[in-house]
Structures are given as C-alpha cells and as structure tokens.
Design a protein that fits this description.
The chain has 226 residues and is of the alpha/beta class. The protein has helices at residues 20-27, 64-77, 95-101, 119-124, 141-152, 200-218, and strands at residues 2-7, 32-37, 50-52, 60-62, 82-92, 106-111, 128-131, 185-186, 189-190. It has two domains: 2-152, SPOUT methyltransferase, trefoil knot domain (Alpha/beta knot); 172-223, tRNA(m1g37)methyltransferase, domain 2 (Trp Operon Repressor, Chain A).
Length: 226
C-alpha cells in the first residue's frame, strides 16, 4: 500500500513514519509513505504557495497552481484510489473508514494550511474529505500521520499477531475490555480469576461483557443509546 502526502511542512512527518510499527511495515515492504514538499512547486523566486483570499478577510489560502501541478505529476505516475483532503469540514474519521481505506492500493493525502486550499482543487481533484475531529489544527500533517498509522497497522502482516487489530476498540462498535499482565497479584491488586482459569470460552464471554459494560458507561453513543 502506498500513501503520497502533499505538505507545506514535510519535516513534521519525519518522526511518525520512521519509528515503531510504521517503520517495520515499510521495512517489510508492506507500506510506502512518500511526502512531497508543495513548496517545490511554488511560484516565482520565493516559491509562493499561498495568497490573499478573494473578497477580503483574514488568513491566506493555498493557491491552485502549485497544488494542481503537484497532483498532476503524481497522477501521471500512478492511479489513485482516493485523493483525500484533510479538513475540519470533512467526513468524521472512524475505524470503519480506516478499515475501508486499508483495502486501497494508492492514496493521496493533501495537507491544508492557513485558511485552507482553493476550493477549485476540492472540486476538481479531491474524492474524499476527512476530519479527524471537531477542532482545528495548524495544518493537516498531524491528521495525515493519524490516518497513515491507523490504516497501516491493519494491513495484513504489519502487526506481529495479525488478529491483534481485530480486537481493537471500535472494530465491533465496542470499546476494548480491560487488559492485565503479570504478576497476577500486585500489592494485593488481583487479576480477575477468570483470566487465569484457562477456560477460553468463558474468558471470551467475560471480555465481551466487559467491553459492552465499558462502552455503555463511556461511549453509549456507539450503541445508539443516546
């Protein structure tokens, strides 16, 4: 799977993809992440990528020409399943969307800055707009990192235990149940006996009940209880 990320501040993405699970996925050849500096397509001696908005108002807007030239170059090299713009007014990102994106082969992510990108880029290139939450970031880079990480980790063979991602929170509209590890008794705080019983069907039943209880208490909206 390949991600191409268009960014005005590519340095922000150096760390997330060069460590831990994402690096291992890249080393295995399962995930490619390429970050493209939009300033390389900027106009004039100063590589301009933004300008004042028509009609006045505070804040600059990312210009059409640099973005279009970068997108056109990438599209000439390969077909993209999705061209995604990261924006607060996009569709709310969730685990179901991550699962769907993990089935794609090539995805382009456009990181906005300032007041956003010229609307004509959204109209003529973008196939999907995503918001990671009801708040505003300084740019789309952190959102892009979140999407790559959440999608990349569920690509088959990325995780050591391929079943691990199947039991993450939100995969079945439930939060994950409590988890414990050794020792079984720490300062008198004991692990529930069922987890050390060896009775796998009973353990799975307990985990489901705990997941349901936690979801009802903390995120009843996931169950449609609100």
């Amino acid at each position: 799977m390949r991600f191409d990320i268009i960014s005005a501040v590519p340095e922000l993405l150096d760390s997330p993809f060069n460590h831990s699970i994402m690096k291992r996925a890249a080393d295995k050849g399962l995930l490619e992440v390429h970050v493209h500096n939009i300033r390389e397509y900027g106009l004039g001696n100063y590589r301009q990528i933004d300008d004042y908005q028509f009609g006045g108002g505070a804040g600059m807007v990312m210009m059409c020409e640099p973005l279009a030239n970068c997108i056109d170059k990438l599209m000439a090299e390969r077909d993209y399943d999705e061209i995604i713009y990261l924006t607060p007014d996009g569709k709310r990102y969730d685990q179901k969307m991550a699962n769907q994106l993990s089935l794609k082969e090539n995805i382009m992510l456009i990181c906005g800055h300032y007041k956003g990108i010229d609307e004509r880029i959204r109209e003529h290139y973008v196939t999907l707009e995503i918001s990671i939450g009801d708040f505003v970031l300084s740019g789309g880079e952190l959102a892009a990192a979140i999407i790559v990480d959440s999608v990349g980790r569920i690509i088959p063979k990325v995780l050591g235990d391929e079943t691990s991602a199947l039991f993450d929170s939100f995969q079945d509209d439930l939060l994950a149940p409590p988890v414990y590890t050794r020792p079984a008794d720490f300062r008198g705080w004991k692990v529930p006996e069922i987890l050390t019983s060896g009775n796998l069907p009973k353990i799975e039943e307990w985990r489901y009940d705990q997941a349901l209880k936690r979801t009802q208490e903390r995120r009843p909206d996931l169950l449609g209880d609100e």
